[in-house]
Amino acid sequence: METVNKGLEQEFFEEIVNNNFHSPFIELMGYKMIEIGKGEVAIEFNPGKEMLNAIGIVHGGSTAALCDTAMGFAVRSLGKIPTTVEMKINYLLPINLNERVIARGRVIKEGENICVAECEIIKDNKIAVKSIGTYFNLKK
Fold first, then answer.
1. What residue ranges define each of the domains in the chain, with the CATH number in brackets?
2. How are beta strands 32-37 and 4-6 bridged, if at all?
3. What single DSSP character describes residue 2?
4. N or C end of the chain: which has fewer CB within 10 A?
């Protein structure tokens, strides 16, 4: 599945998709960027057994990392180099083995140095996880 460009300059889009999104961590987690636009991103996650906790559902750290990644790339799509300052997360529904979910990250406040973003992880058309985060721009 190719990533859909929702309005970014083509060269910047390709930089994000081909370079920034390919880190060892993202490859380990198996995230797939399905769309990106200015201040927004959608990432697919289909968790395997290595993402399960002791009670057999996806570990909250896995979904927290997914939220952080989606929000960070939403900020990155604005031309910033984000690093996480803080993040809050609410777990609303459990996510199960091999249950395909979509994380939708969106910038809700853009500043020169600080941005605030939110993320919803959607499963079966319901919000499973909701988060909000603050990101500092390392680009000077």
1. 4-137 (3.10.129.10)
2. parallel
3. P
4. C
Number of C-beta neighbours around residue 108 at 10 A: 12
Sequence-ordered strand ranges (E) for 38-81: 40-45
- In the beta sheet, which residues pair with residue 4? 35
Longest Cα pair distance anywhere in the chain, in angstroms?
A: 45
> Is 117 within 8 Å of 132 (Cβ atoms)?
yes
pLDDT digits over 106-135, tens only?
Answer: 999 999 999 999 999 999 999 999 999 999
Residue 72 and residue 31 in contact, taking contact as beta carbons nearer than 8 Å:
no
Distance of CA 90 to the CA centre of its chain: 15
Helix (H) or strand (E) holding 109: strand 101-110
pTM: 0.96
